[in-house]
Amino acid sequence: MSEYIIALDQGTTSSRAIVFDKKGSIVSVGQKEHEQIMPRAGWVEHDPIEIRDNMREVIGIALGRANLTRHDIAAVGITNQRETAVVWDKNTGIPVYNAIVWQDTRTQPIVDRIAGDAGVDRYKDIVGLPLATYFSGTKIVWILENVEGAREKAEAGDLIFGTTDTWVLWNLTGGPDGGVHATDVTNASRTLFMDLKTLAWRDDILADFGVPRSMMPEIRSSSEVYGEARDTSLLRETPVAGILGDQQAATFGQAAFDAGESKNTYGTGNFLIFQTGTEIVKSENGLLTTVGYKLGDEPAHYALEGSIAVTGSLIQWLRDQLGIISSAPEVEELAAKVEDNGGVYFVPAFSGLFAPYWRPDARGAIVGLTRFANRNHIARAALEATAFQTREVLDAVNADSGVDLTELKVDGGMIANDTLMQFQADILGVPVVRPVVAETTALGAAYAAGLAVGFWNDLDELRANWQEDKRWTPNDDVAERERQLRLWKKAVTKSMDWVDADVN
Fold first, then answer.
1. What does each C-alpha distance from 244 to 56, 116, 178, 208, 220 come to in angstroms?
2. Tens digit of pLDDT for each residue in 215-242?
3. pLDDT the model gives residue 402
4. Residue 201 forms beta bridges with which residues?
5. How far apart are CA 446 and CA 221, in angstroms?
6. Which of 163, 171, 165, 182 is nearest to 230 (CA)?
7. What is the pTM of this model?
8. I need a surface site. Which of 157, 217, 335, 495 has the fewest CB within 10 A?
9. What are phi and psi of 248, to 5 degrees?
10. C-alpha distances in angstroms, 394 versus 132, 304, 306?
11. Is 228 helix (H, G, I), strand (E, B) or coil?
12. What's the number of CA atoms in the CB half-sphere (13 Å) around residue 41?
């Protein structure tokens, strides 16, 4: 009997394969980073071929480290960076352009054009999202309008689109030789094209964008057998049986299945998801309405989401662009050398401000600088920016749901930072809780795949796997908390209204 599930996690900075056992524990990991391509200000791209090849390699690494073969693997789950768009020739498997990453802001003129007099909420009642550069729909339009010959090939039915889950699935199941062109409801809900009620593509919205219907993948549930792996002998004939966008996968991995349950993921960006059950809840406070998950033929479960564009990537920026740290963990060492931020606040609006503001005109700002400030204060301000942004999103969730969260489950790479997690608890005023298995994104994809093939029986079995690892409790200095929040909000206003017609 196959005793393991393998999850393929195609993330913003790396691709990983993680093998899990029945208890949801990690058996082995293969990981490889891919290049972050930034041709000009506001543009962020990835090479889809590099991602495809890296994914093949990390599968081999994960299996090899655990001394396993395909016969030991019951199913494959996929999770991914949700809004990153790939357009490729279905006959050759060659992308017509690099993947345009969710952080990319080049499509703002397209957003403005489509919004027209109706504004950015033109389709929000249908798709749950405002028009924004964040989502993949406008990225497809940019490729069709700017890559020579792309429009003609798309109209002829030769080009197909996918977020990176679709790209991985298509290649894994055969590519040009019968590859499955599909996505799940969670990823489809991030395109601007899927009707939240019917879970189907809206032909009228596709027509407004000028995107041929033939480009779009089939929308499937998050947990079912889509096909079998054929592309690599290492997983040949293994069923691919689960797909969840990364934030929904992390929520699933946290065993937050029911209405009122939530999690916050600290990754390249931060994403807080609050489950609303089978009810579609429309936000009045700057959140997104999205699909949480759908298991086979069961009804879809929905969620509210607070998306923050820049958190972990701010630490990468300190390392790669400024060079004030040589590795990500060093930021905590610097931050710990000072008692507070020295009056410095860092608003990382590199891609504009996402939730709850949705201000594409904002850009990054460091405010409150004096001669007293040093790199330790800047490092601390960078960490604190993650916590402040999360507080604002949590306030929006509380306002929309009418029920204040009493604790926050967390996951992602940054939760290893004790300084950040303690400050997060302090600024929220509620406990912050870390699970034993922090790789909840990959775990959620594994769970979805395992449920589809009977590896796990039901959600109760998955709930039993969840265990608390550490809890941070807040201090009781409410006056200091409110002072810090007031100054943060003041700093945010300084980042707005920066982009004019001649400023990127």
1. 19, 32, 22, 27, 11
2. 999 999 999 999 999 966 699 999 999 9
3. 82
4. 194
5. 15
6. 171
7. 0.90
8. 157
9. -65, -35
10. 21, 11, 8
11. strand
12. 9
